[in-house]
Amino acid sequence: MKLSKLIVLCVLASAGSSFGASGIFGSYINVTSSNHGNIPIWYDAQAPGGGRASDPTDFSGFAFGSFNPGAGGVLNLTGGEVLTFKNGGSDVTGTTLNYRIYTAGFPTGSHNPVNIGFTADATFADAAGTSYTGTGDQKWSDSSLWNPVNLLSGLTPGDYEIDIYLEAASTDGTLFSNNGGSNYKATFTVVPEPSAALLGGLGALALLRRRRI
């Protein structure tokens, strides 16, 4: 009886070791803006735990400011990064950044997916410059490798929100980095072009001043 119980316990222990787990332990969003030097900047989405080499600005709640596309205003989505882990029999097979833009306060429309390529197994440094060495840790990252997504394209003057979540496909199902279901949201404003009438008026005013001089 004791021998049979021991055999059962060994079988169960062996079966348990064959199960694995996977997940996302960090994510970042890369944006290039004319209001911030026209250089790609990493923003925190899901901040990884532990001490980090640097602490990027949170994407959620960030205000990118006002843009006039006709006057050279730029607001581009230029990358994403997902940090994943896996162990046992689990595997992560791909990651995606999903974004949408809508009038502030009125969330509508579906998200647009952009695939993020595999970068490295541990050991690697993430977007914040922190190194990770855990067995099964992986980095999926693209920055300025995509065709930049012009977030201002086709928008009329008004206030807008950028709504983003990231996900990973795995043998355990779809894994999400989505701010607890609320997604990561930042804001910006598109300002109108000066009207032709206003420009004409300014020109006439300048001409009048020159005549007076």
Helix/strand/pairing class, anyone? alpha+beta
User: Given the C-alpha coordinates, what overall shape results?
Assistant: elongated
Residue-averaged pLDDT: 86
State the helicity in percent bands: 10-25%
What is the number of beta strands? Answer: 14
The DSSP helix count reads: 2
| H and E string | HEEEEEEEEEEEEEEH
CATH class: Mainly Beta
CATH architecture descriptor text:
Distorted Sandwich
- Domain count: 1
> Any low-confidence stretches, pLDDT <50, length ≥5?
1-18, 196-202, 204-208
* Distance, first to last CA: 113 Å
Radius of gyration (CA) equals 25 Å
Portion in beta strands: over 45%
Report the major sheet.
Answer: 6 strands, antiparallel
CATH-defined topology: Coagulation Factor XIII, Chain A, domain 1
Explain this structure.
With 213 residues, the chain is an alpha+beta fold. It has a single domain (21-212), classed as Coagulation Factor XIII, Chain A, domain 1 (Distorted Sandwich), CATH 2.70.50. The chain has helices at 2-17, 196-212; strands spanning 21-33, 40-46, 63-67, 75-87, 92-103, 112-116, 118-121, 124-125, 131-132, 138-143, 149-150, 158-170, 173-177, 184-190. Strands 1, 2, 4, 7, 10 and 11 form a 6-stranded antiparallel beta sheet that branches. Strands 3, 5, 6, 12, 13 and 14 form a 6-stranded mixed beta sheet that branches. Strand 5 and strand 6 form a beta hairpin. The longest helix is centred in the C-terminal third of the chain and has 17 residues, at 196-212. The chain starts with a helix and ends with a helix. The model is unreliable at 1-18, 196-202 and 204-208 (pLDDT under 50).
